[in-house]
Design goal:
Blueprint (H helix, E strand, L loop, with lengths): L14 E5 L6 E2 L2 E2 L3 H5 L1 H9 L3 E5 L16 H11 L4 E3 L8 H5 L6 E4 L6 H4 L3 H8 L4 E4 L21 E3 L1 H14 L6 E5 L8 H8 L4 E4 L1 H10 L14 H13 L3 E3 L3 E5 L7 E4 L8 E5 L1 H12 L3 E5 L12 H15 L4 E5 L1 H9 L8 E3 L3 H8 L4 H9 L1
Parallel strand pairs: 1-4, 1-7, 4-6, 5-6, 7-8, 9-10, 9-15, 10-11, 15-16, 16-17
Antiparallel strand pairs: 2-3, 12-13, 12-14
């Protein structure tokens, strides 16, 4: 792995195209969560120390090749500037209109952020000419965007054909952490997985069943499993056509001796805005909505994690946005963070909702590693080869 910091390169005055993921949540034009911005700062600081000229390529949202006013990166450039206490020049031209002279003329140790690269159709179509034109803006390319490395996009994959390319500091840390989960496992190992749809995560579950000792299913996914194993889930969110998927999971868990755990008691309400009531799963009524895991389930999860050396968490345990249904997620965080702090567990968390929960409860520094990636995180764990990673390995 050719990490930019490991190379004996003279970067003084060199134009470094830095691909990052700044697709942060925004509301009414204001950034509501900054984890992805904060993650790129170490690579930026390294390049500044080397007196490079940094040209940031990124995106927000899915404008589908059109210029969308509410998807400009300008507010993000200002936020980055405030976080690093340094000017970030914002170039408001679409990337295809940026000239070499625009980037040549900035000073050493300067940062220029280009406009949302997805305003150009050539980005998502992985257009070769567009990728080649991008490459002309820099001397070297650095990918520090693990969270989009599962995309075959021009500024992620194809650009590496035309310019010396390297790993950034953040993406290398991400891969090292996930390798410890997938290939350098210290057992016993436990997966806690949530989210609304079990069908979208069936491949990751079946892939990890072969390697993990325990899989704990929570959130909306658990409702589907409960429904298809004969429990009443009332009006809870559920996928109704997943009987075969559930059978496959349970069959493979027996085959590979992996224990599947799901809620024995839950917290229910009549609405998302209501207060919660703890019930055994057999006592759930027709008009109940399951919105969190119950205390017996939390105690069971604690026993499993207490006997675990490695834990991977993706997906909250309930509707944690309402304080009445945050206890399961909060307790899981507490259990994992306490073991991590005592150096008794290797813990990795990933996915947008998971990171949001971790930040809400101020536990960001309580895990061995927290990934801001969603789709790339899951696809890597499935065992897939990510196009952005493959391209770097091929074309460095």
């Amino acid at each position: 792995m050719k990490i930019i910091s490991d190379q004996n390169l003279n970067l003084k005055g060199k134009k470094v195209l830095l691909r990052v993921d700044l697709n942060v949540p925004m509301k009414n034009g204001a950034i509501t969560e900054t984890s992805r911005i904060e993650k790129i700062i170490p690579t930026i600081k390294f390049l500044l120390e080397k007196q490079a000229k940094i040209i940031i390529l990124s995106h927000i949202g899915r404008p589908k090749g059109n210029v969308v006013k509410g998807m400009s990166l300008e507010p993000i450039s200002k936020k980055l500037s405030s976080l690093i206490n340094k000017e970030v020049i914002f170039n408001n031209k679409t990337v295809d209109q940026v000239k070499i002279s625009d980037v040549e003329n900035i000073k050493n140790c300067s940062i220029m952020m280009l406009e949302n690269i997805r305003f150009n159709k050539g980005e998502e179509t992985n257009d070769e000419r567009f990728a080649k034109d991008i490459s002309k803006l820099g001397d070297i390319f650095v990918n520090d965007a693990f969270s989009v490395s599962h995309r075959s996009h021009a500024s992620v994959e194809r650009v590496t054909k035309f310019i010396p390319s390297f790993y950034g500091l953040q993406i290398s840390e991400e891969i090292k952490a996930l390798k410890r989960i997938t290939s350098e496992i210290k057992k016993p190992i436990t997966l806690i997985i949530g989210g609304s749809k079990i069908s979208t995560k069936i491949r990751i579950i079946n892939n990890l069943i072969k390697k993990f000792n325990n899989i704990i299913i929570v959130g909306g996914m658990a409702n589907t499993l409960l429904k298809h194993t004969g429990s009443n889930i009332g009006k809870s969110i559920c996928e109704h056509d997943c009987a075969d998927l559930i059978k496959e999971i349970l069959k493979n868990s027996e085959k590979y001796n992996c224990s599947i755990t799901y809620p024995k008691d839950v917290v229910v309400s009549k609405s998302l805005e209501g207060s919660g009531k703890n019930k055994d799963i057999n006592d759930v009524e027709k008009d109940d909505i399951i919105l969190d895991i119950g205390m017996k389930t939390i105690d069971n999860i604690k026993k499993i994690i207490d006997d675990t050396n490695t834990v991977l968490w993706n997906g909250p345990a309930g509707y944690f946005e309402n304080p009445n249904f945050q206890n399961g997620t909060s307790k899981i965080l507490e259990i994992i963070s306490n073991k991590t702090k005592n150096d008794k567990i290797f813990s990795v968390a990933g996915g947008g909702e998971t990171v949001a929960a971790i930040k809400k409860f101020n536990k960001l520094n309580s895990f061995t590693f927290v990934s801001t990636a969603g789709g790339a995180f899951l696809e890597y764990l499935e065992g897939k080869t990510l196009p952005g990673i493959k391209a770097l390995n091929k074309n460095v």
